[in-house]
Design goal:
Helix content: 55-70%
Structural class: mainly alpha
Radius of gyration: 35 Å
Number of helices: 5
Order of helices and strands: HHHHH
Distance between the termini: 112 Å
Number of strands: 0
């Protein structure tokens, strides 16, 4: 029984899962850019994502982008803390522009996801409203058909008038 348990745990090993998925966990190195505590030179970075670009992305892409940017913010926070720890003046090393880009992109991702959520809620309410209208119309038709059925049965039950006898 112990051997079976050991075999199962070896199959579920996170290291094995990481090897199969292509993910390599580097531990604390992931909090530093290019494995350095502080970069040697200032790299040029791109711009923040525009909301119009983010609207075209799928849910999965937005989620991946969120975590990439979150990781970038963590790297920048680690660098800032390292500068503080080493007493490096902020004028010599500052990543404020990159932090602002990250914050803007994250805010825009939240905005796009909120827009999608509101659109989904609106469509759900609209579908529910249409369903209620459809049910009301069906109940009106059923009531009208019952009413006409009772009216026809009542006319058939009334005695026919006897022919008039000439006097």
């Amino acid at each position: 029984m112990v051997n079976v348990f050991g075999a199962v745990t070896r199959q579920l090993s996170t290291r094995r899962l990481a090897q199969n998925s292509g993910f390599v966990s580097r531990g604390l190195e992931e909090f530093f850019e290019k494995g350095q505590r502080l970069p040697e030179k200032k790299d040029s970075t791109g711009r923040s994502w525009a909301a119009s670009e983010l609207r075209q992305k799928s849910w999965e892409d937005l989620q991946k982008l969120w975590y990439v940017i979150l990781k970038e913010r963590n790297v920048l926070a680690s660098q800032k803390e390292e500068c503080r720890r080493l007493s490096i003046p902020s004028q010599f090393f500052s990543n404020k522009a990159r932090v602002v880009k990250c914050k803007k992109t994250m805010a825009r991702i939240k905005t796009v996801l909120n827009e999608r959520q509101l659109a989904w809620k609106k469509s759900q309410e609209e579908a529910l409203k249409q369903e209620k209208e459809k049910n009301k119309e069906q109940s009106r038709k059923i009531a009208a058909s019952k009413l006409s059925a009772t009216a026809t049965t009542e006319t058939s039950k009334t005695p026919a008038s006897e022919p008039a006898v000439p006097a």
